[in-house]
Structure formats: C-alpha cells, structure tokens
Design a protein that fits this description.
mainly alpha, 148 residues, elongated
Length: 148
Amino acid sequence: MKKLFVLPALMVFVAVSSCQKTDSTIDQVAERKAQLDAREKALDAREKSLDARERTTTDSRAATALQAVPPDAQAELKRLIPDPAHVKAERQRRLQERISQRQRKLEEIQQSRVPGTAGASAGTATAGASAGTASGTEDISPSPSPTP
C-alpha cells in the first residue's frame, strides 16, 4: 500500500518543482530584459550628450576660425567667392552663345545642301532626287507611280 502511495506523491512533487523552475526562469528573463532596457536607455542618453557636445565643439571651432581671420583677409576671401547672380548670368550668356552657334551651323548646312534660293524649291527637289539616285540610294516619291 505504501508503494502505491509513493509513486503518485513523487509525481506530484516533480510537477510542483517543475512549475517552480518555470516561474523562476520567467522571472530571470523578465529581470534580464529590464536590465537590458535600462542599459539601452543609458546608452541613448550618452549618445545624445556626445552629439550635443560635438555640435557645440564644431560651432565654437567655426566661430573661432572665422574670428581668427583678419578683416582684410575676409574681404579677400569674399572677393574670391563668385557672386551667384553673376555666375548664373555668365552661364546664360554662354548658353545663348552656343545656341546661336548651332543655329548658324544649321543654316550653313542647309545652304550647302540646297544650292540656290528658297523660291526655286521645285528645281532643288528635282536636283536632290537626281543626286539621290546617282549615289545609289532610292528616293521615295510622294505619290505611287502606276505600274503596268
């Protein structure tokens, strides 16, 4: 009879102890997570303070560097830096110059291809057609020719 009672008692003891182990592991995980969160917050705070310190250091260095340059040298530096409006105007002038050059070249090419005046367009069309057939290329006529 005692043997029958020992086996279920042992099973109950194992079940209870395993539940307690699970609870302790859950507590350990929660504690570890809380520690990691605290460390992460501390790290973020340090990064923010470091960024602020770097910004103030950079700003003070820039102000110190600007103050270290004498006023006559500052005027010289400002003279060397081109005026944005002047740069834009120069760019527009060069662009217009290039456009006019291209237009002149286009006119020269058109005049070299078509000898004569613009009033003799019928004569130039036939001259162009004869030149096209002489070079070995076929010209496409505007209207189909009748075939026998």
